[in-house]
């Protein structure tokens, strides 16, 4: 469900502020009834009219971007830095990222204009699995990797159990490559987890988001998801949610 003024703004007929005014003026109806207050939320099947004209909802679209490092997971940046939506200037729909990857993190990032879908995936109970591959400083002991696996205390609480695999290490350079699979999505979580065991992250990439892998994509490339891929993700998120 999304706020009515947001849905009107997304349809491209008014700014969010103007949409709020239209609602307060009694010019907006949902399923035939005039709505005059601002808290109302609507779903994809609700019929909205503005000034008696049915709202054309944007077609929902879904993209997987292989986000390069050095790009912000946002739709705009006041410092003029590159943002993820710069890769979609040919798309007329107003899409935005589902969650975020740090500026220096590369990898799988989903973008859509479907707010309900985004909320479903980002909800903590959806438990979409995310696979990260980190190059870290030093070579971690088995015990340290076990502690990541069991869950580690961070300043915002203990992390949920994770899957951890030491992929390789370089004794000379004193670095290691570790795969970490988590379903939480706290801010800078992977970097903070490795920092907590004394092995800071040097490089980080998200290899998989739920069922979506980077297979066939180079950094900076995107692909539109098929209806089947969208459905798979939805099923995955719902399954965990109902557990
Ligand atoms: N964890 C991080 O630390 N950074 C990311 O970009 C994603 C997960």
Automatic annotation (TrEMBL):
Secretion signal, residue range per the UniProt entry: none
InterPro entries (alphabetical): PsdUridine_s_RsuA/RluB/E/F_cat (IPR042092), PsdUridine_synth_cat_dom_sf (IPR020103), PsdUridine_synth_RsuA/RluA (IPR006145), PsdUridine_synth_RsuA/RluB/E/F (IPR000748), PsdUridine_synth_RsuA/RluB_CS (IPR018496), RsuA_PseudoU_synthase (IPR050343), S4_RNA-bd (IPR002942), S4_RNA-bd_sf (IPR036986)
UniProt-listed Enzyme Commission number(s): 5.4.99.-
Record carries keyword RNA-binding: yes
PROSITE patterns referenced in this protein's UniProt entry, alphabetically: PSI_RSU, S4
CDD domains the UniProt entry points to: PseudoU_synth_RsuA_like, S4
Gene3D superfamilies, per database record: Alpha-L RNA-binding motif (3.30.70.1560), Pseudouridine synthase I, catalytic domain, N-terminal subdomain (3.30.70.580), RNA-binding S4 domain (3.10.290.10)
Record domain RNA-binding S4: where: 2-63
Keywords: Isomerase, RNA-binding
Major enzyme class: isomerase
PANTHER family in UniProt: PSEUDOURIDINE SYNTHASE FAMILY PROTEIN-RELATED, RNA-BINDING S4 DOMAIN-CONTAINING PROTEIN
Family label: Belongs to the pseudouridine synthase RsuA family.
Name the record gives this protein: Pseudouridine synthase
